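Action item from last week, closing it out:
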Amino acid sequence: MSPRLASPHQSAVKTGKTGAMQQADKKRRNPVVPMSESEESDSIFHALFEQASVGICYSDFEGVFIRVNPRFCEITGYAAIELIGHSFAEITHPDDIAIDARLGNELIAGTRGPYTLEKRYIRKSGEIVWVRITVTLARTPDGVPHRLVGVIEDINHMMLTEQALRASETRLREAQNVARLASYEIDHRDESRIWSDELFAILEIENAVANPTFELFEQRVHPQDRALIQKTSAEAIASRAPYDLTHRLLMPDGRLKYVEVRGQTSYAEDGTPLRSVGTVQDITSRKQAEIALRQAKESAESANRAKMDFLANMSHELRTPLNAILGYAQLLETEHAGPLLAKQREYLRDIMAGGRHLLELIQDILELAKIDAGRIGLKIEPIDALAVIGDALPLIESMAAARAITLHVARPATGLPQMLADRVRLRQVFLNLLSNAIKYNKLGGRVDVTCVETRPGFLRISVRDTGLGIKPERQAELFVPFSRLGAETMAIEGTGIGLSLTKKLVELMGGRIGYQSVADEGSTFWVDLPIAGQGHATPIEQPASAGNQGEQPAQVASTSRITREQRRLLYVEDNPAHVRLIERALGQIPAVSLTTVHTAELALVAMRSMAPSLILVDLGDPDPLRQESRRRLLAVAEQRRIPVLDLGANQAGERSSGGGEAVDIPRLLAEIERRIGISG
């Protein structure tokens, strides 16, 4: 074992003197001896090596450490004894070993001078540390290459900051590229500009050869938008407001682009603009989508209008011959033309049933189309639900009697609140539900109608039958138009539209419809509608249609002054079959003369020379020109207090949305007699 050297502290203990005293004694005993230049140089070098703020290492030509200073140990995290005798490659990042070795070999071979390299060391803790190393070649006094000397600077913080900055810039560029969002800067002192790479990409200009200028940008601006850009920019600077404008770019190949430009300007104390910064975003895809959506909407609206016009005209054209057929069948039923055989009556019943079924189909299709087009009018008001049910029952009782169905309406002991609904549409809903409950019931079955308060703020009307029920696998088709759930194979009339139409009407009135059904046991359909005065919307009043304008109380009242002298009726109709039907029907009323004209304009001319007791006209004609002329006719009739009877209105005096009600000759004649003051 080699001898252990005593420390300075141990010597002081033995002599009883402090270190300072010992040093003083030593100086007295050993006066300073001048050092040679070589010794002084070595002393200075040793001090610099040990106390340097940068790392210093000596290595042989194989890269094996011979000597390292304390700062190098701090940088790498190793003690000197752990480094000496080991190669630089053992603590160098694998990706940096090759380049460091190559440059070192070139230095040793004399093909290059000292070199500086930024590389990574792997610290003893496993951390990565970035350094900047400058390597030089140490030589012997006679100039022979002897050692490699490395001076190492810790640049880890700087490199991490630069990496974070580069990563941030990369993310910014990527985000700008994805969002098609570019940035710009303008120095207003010399009008110089800085554009991001994305702005060059948006403008489709090569950034390597172009100098950003306003003129270069303006070359890409659509000529029609250039004045707007200059005006907006000047106004923004004058008012010190942010700049915000969307405009077009015109590419050399004729393509249009849309950009959204935003900016903010900073100003000197005297108000002079100094610097503007902002963004340019390519919104071409969004704009094209907006334009396509707008065009699609306009196209859809145009197609919808065309569909509605077609359906309205088709409805009118189909109803015209059907009403004539039904009207003549009704005239035959009255036996005005002579007695009928039993077989003939049976044929008439089939004609009437088929005609009414076709009219219902036309009406339902037109109703659905109007709802889908948002062209249906509603008058939402407080309504007594039981009263509307009572109005609907007489219209369905004969149908129930034909199948021996018992109709029962449960009337609660206490009064029910009113519901918010459209009276005509609500009755239509009840008629649809009641007719289905009868048609799909068993012979001799039962239909129960109940009306109760249900979830808060809503009144529920339920229609329960004891009929066939609906199979579970078909229930998903319940509200699908034209789906009859297999009933098309049964001898039950129907269109498959009723429930779909009912659902849409209920939802338009702010309610909802639901059902419960068990196959072979029956079904219950229910409708929930808002209760009046429960915080729901204010009743909606729709303007009166032309069909109601001719039925003012003053006009009706005026008929009571007509005597039993001959009444003159003015009939506006251009269909010969309808004219003949009405002429023959009026043959049953004595003391009535009929004047027929083809248009409302001719009716106005005829009224100059005659004072009709009543004007007959179908106000539901869909032709816009005829509608306008008939509105003028109504205005003149109102002024002269002449009653107008709308032949397209139903028996309740209301016009249906599609005018699909069948003409009821007996009711029509009774209404004409009432209007002109002839009783029985």
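Closing note: The chain is about 45% helix and 20% strand.
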